[in-house]
Amino acid sequence: MANSLSKAPKMYARFKSPTDRLFDTFNIIFMICLMIVTLYPFINTLAVSLNTANDSIKGGIYLLPREFTWENYKYVFEEATIFHATLISALRTVIGTVLSVFCCTMVAYTIARPEYVLRKFISIAFILTMYFSGGLIPNFLLIRELGMMNSFWVYIIPGLIGVFNVIIIRSFIEKLPEGILESARIDGAGEFTTFLRVVLPLCLPVLATVSLFSAVAQWNSWFDVFLYNSSNVELSTLQYELMKILQNSNTSMNSGSDYASMFSGSEAAINRVTPTSIRATMTIVASVPIILVYPFLQKYFVQGMTLGGVKG
């Protein structure tokens, strides 16, 4: 039986029509081209970051560094602010993701319950916020009046509830068998106990998906740092430091000034880096954590989007 099942794909491939074979060939070629187009910018940036700075100015670096060196990374990690900014970014990513996913799941569970009479009104009100907002200035004034300027919690509290994430989780919860929830209530579990011990474990696939969305948004965010904490170096994030370095490097290149005006350090340190090499290095440093996390969530990511994104 097992042998016949293993031979089935080969027999199917043997009886494919010329049109199907042509389509498969075109599909493979297209996906390979798409993969190359997607990966090339990252590989090229990695090659530039591993190449000597002065040699990178000549150009012509594609997939591999021409003159390999670790000097760009050594220079980046010699900066004390980088480690502290990375710590702040990691803290806001972990804390913000955990609290946001938990709060979004609670809201999604509430509006998914058919006995909640305001579920349609609340859902419409949430969806409207995806199309209309108060604007940048009213939002800034609100944050200031709430006393969250120059504080770590300005990274966490304003983004606790993401409407898109709530909709995905709600669609997933609505697909759960009602009998499981009823069994928990018959056994004496309250709504919060049912939510914690029944709903949350069953929602792991969609929670992994939403966690990835939230983590990437938190890790890549820098504009809120610029608005609310730009005067507080202790709360600066890695992405904000990257933005400042990119801005300074572009300004330096456009004005034609020497590198000494952009970097503070010895002459030897100035000569071993350039704006191009630092820009590539900082891009890799900021991207690697998310790239390392994604493979562990890929299975749940695909499953969560499939089950939570289509309502039966």
TrEMBL record:
It holds the Pfam family BPD_transp_1. Its main location: membrane. GO terms for cellular component: plasma membrane. It comes from the Bacteria. It is a multi-pass membrane protein. Residues 86-297 form the ABC transmembrane type-1 domain. SUPFAM superfamilies: MetI-like (SSF161098). Keywords: Cell membrane, Membrane, Transmembrane, Transmembrane helix, Transport. It is found in: Cell membrane. Belongs to the binding-protein-dependent transport system permease family. This is Carbohydrate ABC transporter permease. It comes from Paenibacillus lentus. The lineage of its organism: Bacteria, Bacillati, Bacillota, Bacilli, Bacillales.
